[in-house]
Amino acid sequence: MDLETAKKQFREGLQRGTVCPCCERKGKIRVLGITAEMAYAFMILVHKYIREPRYYSTRDLFPKEHKATTDAVSLVHWGLIEKKSDSGRSPYRPTDSGMRFYHNQELVPTHVHLFDNKPLRFSDKKTNIVKVFEDSPHDYNQLLRGDFR
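Now predict its structure.
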């Protein structure tokens, strides 16, 4: 099989998961949607950032066992938060876009399609932070006031 055919075969199989016929690397496009847990963690980050503008590690925000810790960092793919550096477990802070999203002034795509943990494309459908919390136990207005019970 020539290289062009191999590339084509690999790209065509990415939606369901595939293996490169040349190097045997596994590949799959992962579709990630913004969840209420991600938004909850994001609200905590922004609330802390408003009080003291700096980068925050996930350990600053949550106890170790909290699932939202890993969920929240995925918001970097939407440009709602940014890492201080590309190395390891770098701390995060909200972006300008993230601040607008927090205040329900910005729409973002509901889903991102990732390959190799990098965005390939975004869904056409948009959402705001209030809609993200619609079917969850969290109340946006309560969180906006800093009530994270």
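The beta strands are 18-19, 26-27, 30-33, 81-83, 92-94, 108-109, 111-115, 118-122, 126-127.
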